[in-house]
Amino acid sequence: MPNSSRLIWPDLLRSLSLLAMASFHFGYDLEALGFNPPLPLWWPDYARVIAATFLILVGVSLWLAHGRGRRWRGFWTREAAIVAGAIAVTVVTYIAMPGFYVYFGILHSIAVCSLLAMACLRLPAIVTILLGLLALAMPYLFAMPQMNAPWLWWIGLSTRWRAAMDFVPVFPWLGWVLVGLGSAKLADATGVLRRDLPHTGALQRMTFIGRHSLAFYLIHQPVIYGSLALIAWMR
Questions:
Q1: In DSSP terms, which residues pair with 104 in a beta bridge?
Q2: 167 phi and psi, to 5 degrees?
Q3: What is the pTM of this model?
Q4: What SS3 class is residue 167?
Q5: What is the tens place of the pLDDT at every residue in 73-106?
Q6: E strands within 145-197?
Q7: Separation between Cα atoms, residue 112 and residue 37, nearest integer Å
Q8: Is the separation of the CB atoms in 12 and 206 below 8 Å?
Q9: CA 2 to CA 19: how far, in whole Å?
Q10: Most buried one in 9, 30, 169, 231, CB count within 10 A?
Q11: ∠76-80-85 over CA atoms, to 5°?
C-alpha cells in the first residue's frame, strides 16, 4: 500500500516523465526494427526535454527527502541502488551493442549529480538556482580539447566524445538538478511545495510507476524492444 503521508504530485510527475521516456524508446525501437519511416527531426529534443524534467524532479525529491535534515542512511541506500542499476545498464548494453554502449547514461548522471547536489543542500535557493544555470552554460563556456580523453567524457566539457545509446554527462545536466533543488527550496519557503493533490484511489494508482522509477527504467526498454522484435520476427 502507498504511504498515505507521501506526497502524490512528485510521484505523479515522475510517472508521466517515465511514460514519456517509454514513448520515446517505443518510437526509436519502431524505427530501428523497420516498422515506421524515420522519426521526426525533433525526436532527440523530445528525449532531452524528458531527461531535463526527470532531473529537475531529482532535485525536488532531494529537498523533499533531506530539506529538513539530511538522512544519510536513506540517501546512501538509494545511491547504491542507482549505481547498481547504472552498472547493469553499462554491462548489458556493452554485451548487446559494444560499439554504442552506455558508458555514462542518465542513471550514472543521477548518481553523481545527487551527490553534488547534496553539497548544495544548505545554500540559499537563489544561489542554488544560479549555480544550476552556470552548470547548464558550462559546456558552452568551458569545453576544450584538453578534456577529450575518454576518461574525462563523463564530465561534459569535451569537444568530442564517443556516441552512445544514452549519454548524460555531469555538465550541463547537473544544472537541471540544481534548478529543481533551488526551486523546491523557494516553493517550500512559501508553503507551496508540500501542498498535495487529493489522495484518491485513481491518483494513487497513477503514481505506481513513479514510486518504482528505477525498476521501471531498467525493465521498460528490454520489454518494449523484445516485444517489437518478436513481432518483427513473426511478420
A1: 167
A2: -135, 115
A3: 0.93
A4: strand
A5: 999 999 999 999 999 999 999 999 999 999 999 9
A6: none
A7: 37
A8: yes
A9: 20
A10: 169
A11: 150
